[in-house]
Design goal:
The complex is a heterodimer. Chain A has 6 helices and 6 strands; from the N terminus they run ββαββααβααβα. By secondary structure, chain A is α/β, with parallel strands linked by helices. Chain B has a 5-stranded antiparallel beta sheet, covered by helices on one side. Classes of the chains: A alpha/beta, B alpha+beta.
């Protein structure tokens, strides 16, 4: 059984990542590769839809953190959406909730990028 | 005595990241059974994940033929997890993190130890005759 899967798509110039399952030091490479693919395609407005993410350790958070500066330098940002309570708790433990935008839905996150209120 | 002398459970595993999920589930199960709340149990399990990851990445440099031993001690007062491993002694100095600085420095690592220290009430390590011991304690009703 695969513990972690990642899919992605692009909606109106916004790249959306869909990590699914258990994101730890073992599965983090897949997540990082998908993030790098977005940057290689010059996509810098990124939403991480965490609806099906059950678990994240510092390895996964490190990827969200490690590429943020490069992304912001290029005029983009990373927003997180649909984060379930148990995963939000972990983001909150390290202070991610003060640095990143957490939106309830993917649509709201995309709209924020496109300045739709 | 705060904890019994004999661990409730001892597990020896090869230093492979593919076993992390199993250890997280095991630790969570032991914590719940020891009457920690679901939220606290998940955090204790995360601390174990971070500690094991640290050993695999930094002490063993991802050499998979190395071994890590975990002892779980439970009492009415809390839970103690002791890791025993060889390799490079761990660096546990980081307790506070400055996320903005880490983002500016494009750092992908460095959150693990901070998480462990934030979750557990006591984190200590010592090295005796080339064997490293990392001991983490979580007391009940502490936050």
């Amino acid at each position: 059984m695969r513990n972690f899967l990642i899919k992605s798509k692009t909606i109106e110039n916004v790249g959306v990542l869909y990590p699914t399952g258990h994101l730890d030091a073992h599965s983090v490479e897949k997540f990082e590769n998908e993030m790098i693919k977005m940057l290689d395609d010059s996509i810098v407005k990124i939403v991480v839809n965490c609806n099906d993410l059950n678990y994240i350790s510092s390895a996964g958070m490190g990827i969200i953190m490690g590429y943020l500066d490069e992304i912001r330098e290029k005029g983009g940002d990373i927003k997180l959406s649909n984060v379930i309570d148990r995963v939000y708790e972990i983001f909150d433990l390290v202070g991610f909730t003060e640095i990143y935008d957490f939106e309830k839905s993917e649509t709201e996150a995309i709209d924020k990028f496109n300045d739709v209120s | 005595m705060m904890f019994p002398e004999t661990p409730e459970l001892t597990v020896s595993i090869p230093a492979k990241t593919e076993l992390l999920k199993m250890l997280v589930e095991l630790t969570n199960h032991i914590a719940v059974r020891n009457f920690f709340s679901p939220s606290e149990s998940r955090k204790i399990a995360l601390a174990v994940d971070e500690a094991i990851t640290n050993v695999i990445k930094h002490s063993y440099k991802e050499s998979e033929d190395s071994e890590i031993k975990l002892d779980f001690y439970c009492s009415n007062e809390g839970m103690k997890i002791k890791l025993e491993f060889s390799g490079i002694p761990p660096q546990l100095s980081e307790s506070m993190v400055n996320l903005e600085k880490m983002i500016k420095a494009k750092k992908k690592g460095g959150l693990g130890v901070a998480l462990i220290k934030r979750i557990m009430d006591s984190v200590e390590y010592r090295t005796i005759e080339d064997v490293n011991y990392l001991e983490m304690i979580k007391w009940k009703r502490s936050s």
